[in-house]
Amino acid sequence: MWDYYTDKSILITGASGFLGTAITHRKLIKKWQRNLPEWDSHWLLNLESITVIDGDIMKTDLGISQETVAGLQKEVDIIIHAASTINLTYSLERVFDHIVQPSESLAQMALGFTSLDRFVYVSTAFANTHLYKLSSKPQTEINEEIYPLLGEGKLLDDSLLSAQDARDQIMKTGSSTEFEVHDFPWPYAYGKHLAERLILNLFIEKGWASKVLILRPSVVGPAERYPYPGYSVPLSTPSTALATAMIASPVFSVVVPTRCSKPEMEATIDEVPVDVVVDRMLAHVALDTTGCVHAVGGERGRLSFMDFWGAAMKLRRLPWEPRIIWSSTVDWHSPDLHPVLRLYVILGTAFLFTEEKTNKLWQMLSPDERDCLQSELSFQRGYWFICVAEQREFWYTMSSSIILF
């Protein structure tokens, strides 16, 4: 599997961010540690195998010179588009400017890369969370596919074609009909859904659909092993941010929307370590997986609400624990929600993200490949509790104007 990457040139957007740093570190470490002693591999990480380009995905051609673009078009084999805001407070207009337009522009640019073998778009497993409101079941199952909008029964091609109309509507009015019709928890989720469709449509028109991999991580958490246990970037790991905010909050009760009959056990949080996300991506790219792929905790890796809440409350210094008020009538856009939970509105839900492609891939790997990958489904579920404990001190020293009450 690792031989696939020999002599491959990889362009990573967002390489200095949380996920991008983990991708870069993992790829280089694997390359050098295969053949060299540990001491030698460390200093080789600083050699000319890395080229840093100071670009801006919100600008035309990444804001770089035409000479640099021409060089990339000839040399790059793999593009990994990991640059993205994860700000759940952004309006649809800001999401469009920061996620949708830059992603479509990069995909358009990629069509001119003569050596391009793979285009990886890092989306989110929550791009289809609108499905929650279309069902009455406690658990919402989401498969590794594109879900059409604007009614049921439409063909996949119809959905892809409507993406351009939605894009044009947003450019003119700041919103789209399909966004207004479907109840997404945040504009961020819809923005990722739209970006997926726009990218796929471009590559389908070019006849390059087989080159596209859409990676859908769930809640990305601190690393389990690489670059080091607990590796994180402040405010880039939503579950630990949520836990630490609630640990420090002086409220006596919080309202949590749910339709679960036993939400303490049925409501779940699907979080996956960043290095698991990276390894699954690298494996799927190398073994030629196409289309949408979930990188998630899945059925065996999810945390129940009580696992999450109980672990967080053990770290709480205040002498009382907030009482959970479960509500089947409060909407996830309601002003009655605690300010923190207006962001983390899916806390009382249960999503099952299927993983057929990763299960199939796992069977294709050799024993040696399995040993060096983090792709196995049974990663340590409790790894993030340590990270919450470490971040708790940060929240206790923050000013009251930053901790939301």
Automatic annotation (TrEMBL):
Catalytic activity: a long-chain fatty acyl-CoA + 2 NADPH + 2 H(+) = a long-chain primary fatty alcohol + 2 NADP(+) + CoA
Superkingdom field: Eukaryota
Cellular compartments per GO CC: peroxisome
EC number of the protein: 1.2.1.84
Enzyme class (EC, first level): oxidoreductase
Keyword hit for Lipid metabolism: yes
UniProt domain Thioester reductase (TE): residue ranges: 39-280
Keywords: Lipid biosynthesis, Lipid metabolism, NADP, Oxidoreductase
Cross-referenced Pfam families: NAD_binding_4 (PF07993)
InterPro entries in the cross-refs: FAR, FAR_NAD-bd, NAD(P)-bd_dom_sf
An example Gene Ontology molecular-function term: alcohol-forming long-chain fatty acyl-CoA reductase activity
GO biological process, one term: long-chain fatty-acyl-CoA metabolic process
Gene3D superfamilies: NAD(P)-binding Rossmann-like Domain (3.40.50.720)
Annotated SUPFAM superfamilies: NAD(P)-binding Rossmann-fold domains
Functional summary from the UniProt entry: Catalyzes the reduction of fatty acyl-CoA to fatty alcohols.
Family: Belongs to the fatty acyl-CoA reductase family.
Protein name, entry field: Fatty acyl-CoA reductase
Organism: Aspergillus arachidicola
